[in-house]
Design brief:
The complex is a heterodimer of chains A (263) and B (341). With 263 residues, chain A is mostly helical. Chain A has ten helices and no strands. The two termini of chain A are 13 Å apart. The model of chain A has no long low-confidence stretch (mean pLDDT 90). Helices cover 36% and strands 24% of the residues of chain B. Classes of the chains: A mainly alpha (263), B alpha/beta (341).
């Protein structure tokens, strides 16, 4: 692969418009296949209800109501699981030949992946809003500042966006949509469960709690809880943002490079 | 528009309209142990149709992918309109159109939206993009279906939409990779008409096909490729002459007589006869056809074989392929990974 100055100039000039085109295309797909949107929202809402009512009584979270503890965790879990759709969608485009068409067009090379992720992030905004609404209906309440209440769902959306890039690198590296799905869940499940998403980390065996304490998921969820509950959030937030920056630094170039070298 | 700019710069580069618009020099490409291209060189003159003919796995698609900037060659070089496909891909892309083996259309978008999206990605401007989409929908007889999602289209309609998308920017060179594979005969004939109309407007076309008839119908020049190498090149008439000129064909109604006929034609002809049991015909290349015809009739009469039909004719490209490669074009199994050849 040769990267010329001309290619970089073209990238800077056309990327915003091309990303918007691809965003529009993916949003139309969501609108015309309502089943995609229904399933990507039903599952998170079901998780909120199941965990709140089934596990709520059994899990001790100290002075904090379990629903107040749970909701930030469930938001993070939903955007993580949702990020798998980025890779699946890209793998479908590889199989169908759409990617070949895009790659022969004089368009920005980042646009196909970035436009896809922008659409998935838009969907995440919708899903996070819906889950907050359901949470409020079953008793979730903010206990912190207004700024914290506004920032909390934003952190979730940003976190989801970060993992979309990992998913994109997977989706452009495998040949089939099914493979992209499995290849994502295989590591996402342990990552989500070995964290503070559903239970306090202290309840895990020592060796596991060490892993959980340093997980990007734990930092992000702790920051979101701090913002929502009005407790300390700066330290986990900085660690979470550092994780996100690190992941992006590796996976944005990797995803774009994988996209360009699809054979 | 981008296409025009590139062309103007090409002229400024010192190239001119009479030099070949596509030049391929000794291109090699391997996938693991499979040598998809083992040193291919060719040129395409402006405004002509080159038919790249070969069985599955011959390397046709690999060459198309190299020329459309999708794949870097391992060795060798290729230029389109004077621009190197590896080092100047941003110059090449505005000048080319590709319609691939699987119609690359977005199922959830309507026909019109598909074309408008492609036009927008060529950065045409909203009004121009809309106008261009409308124009192409009309030209490819898709206006009635324009507002329907592409998922509802028939195979032939999808190919037409795919072809329309490849023509959005009025490309200098159009690459058609097996454009009619999988279409029914009616849809194939329709697509041939569309391609002929395109060629009449001066577009340069590289067409790959497994169908010998298709190359014969559409191409000015035919390049026969097998196992990543060019094994023959010329007009359809050249290639026919090369496989021994005229063919003498005998058809029998009693299939039991096929073996006898084969022996007679082997003795009278210039090469090994081909036997087609399905149609009950045996065929062989001959020189001095009329004299041979008389000889064959006499021998078959002596052997008391009933002839249903006998005659001299030009060879089909299928027979050309057989005489060039020693195997039939259609029976070659794919020997490279799917999607990679």
């Amino acid at each position: 692969m040769v990267v010329s100055m001309e290619a970089l100039r073209m990238e800077a000039r056309y990327a915003p418009g091309d990303i918007l085109q691809l965003w529009k295309r993916n949003m139309l797909a969501y609108r015309r296949q309502p089943d995609l949107l229904v399933f990507s929202t039903i599952q998170p809402v079901m998780f909120v209800l199941l965990f709140a009512y089934v596990f709520g009584g059994a899990i001790q979270t100290g002075p904090v109501e379990y629903i107040d503890f749970l909701l930030p965790g469930i938001l993070a879990q939903s955007v993580l699981f949702g990020s798998t759709q980025t890779g699946v969608g890209l793998a479908v485009d590889v199989t169908s030949g759409m990617i070949d068409r895009y790659r022969t067009l004089p368009m920005a090379r980042s646009a196909v992946v970035a436009g896809r992720i922008l659409a998935d992030t838009t969907r995440n905004v919708f899903v996070v809003g819906l889950m907050l609404g359901v949470g409020f209906l079953i008793g979730f309440r903010y206990h912190g500042t207004v700024a914290g209440a506004i920032a909390m769902p934003f952190v979730a959306v940003l976190f989801g966006q970060t993992f979309c890039w990992i998913s994109a690198a997977i989706g452009t590296s495998v040949r089939r949509a099914e493979t992209a799905q499995v290849a994502s869940f295989v590591w996402l499940f342990p990552l989500v469960f070995v964290s503070s998403v559903f239970v306090p980390v202290e309840t895990m065996p020592d060796w596991l709690s060490v892993v959980a304490e340093n997980s990007p998921v734990t930092h992000t969820v702790n920051a979101m809880r701090g913002l929502a509950l009005g407790t300390d959030f700066w330290e986990p937030l900085i660690k979470a943002l550092a994780w996100m920056a690190g992941i992006m630094a590796v996976f944005v170039p990797l995803a774009v490079w994988r996209y360009r070298s699809i054979q | 528009m981008a296409g025009r700019t590139g062309d103007a710069e090409l002229m400024a580069d010192g190239s001119n309209g009479s030099s070949p618009i596509v030049v391929v020099r000794d291109v090699h490409k391997s996938f693991g142990d499979v040598h998809a291209l083992a040193g291919v060189s060719l040129e395409i003159e402006r405004g002509t149709v080159l038919g790249l003919l070969g069985p599955n796995g011959a390397g046709k698609t690999t060459l198309v992918r190299v020329l459309t900037t999708l794949l870097d060659p391992d060795e060798g070089s290729a230029t389109v309109a004077g621009f190197d496909v590896r080092r100047e891909r941003t110059r090449v892309r505005p000048l080319i159109g590709l319609a691939g083996q699987s119609a690359a259309v977005d199922d959830t978008l309507t026909g019109r939206e598909n074309l408008e999206m492609v036009a927008n990605l060529y950065h045409m401007g909203r009004a121009t993009a809309a106008a261009r989409a409308g124009e192409l929908l009309a030209r490819f007889d898709l206006l009635e279906a324009a507002e329907r999602q592409a998922r509802t289209y028939s195979g032939g309609m999808r190919r037409r939409l795919d072809l329309a998308a490849s023509l959005v920017a009025d490309p200098e060179v159009l690459f058609l990779d097996e454009p009619t594979t999988g279409l029914d005969p009616q849809a194939r004939l329709e697509l041939w008409t569309v391609i002929r109309e395109l060629v009449a407007t001066g577009t340069t076309v590289l067409l790959t096909t497994q169908y010998l008839e298709e190359a014969d119908q559409l191409a000015d020049e035919i390049v026969v490729i097998d196992h990543g190498r060019i094994i023959a090149q010329g007009t359809a008439a050249d290639l026919k002459a090369r496989s021994g000129g005229e063919h003498l064909t005998v058809r029998v109604s009693d299939l039991a007589a096929l073996e006898q006929v084969r022996d007679v034609l082997e003795a009278e002809g210039d090469g090994p006869p081909t036997v087609d049991e399905a149609t009950g015909t045996v065929s062989v290349a001959v020189s001095n056809g009329p004299a041979r015809l008389a000889g064959v009739v006499r021998r078959l009469d002596e052997a008391e074989v009933a002839i249903a039909d006998i005659g001299l004719r030009q060879p089909t490209l299928d027979e050309v392929f057989l005489s060039l490669t020693g195997h039939r074009a259609e029976s070659e199994p794919a020997d490279a990974p799917a999607g990679a050849v």
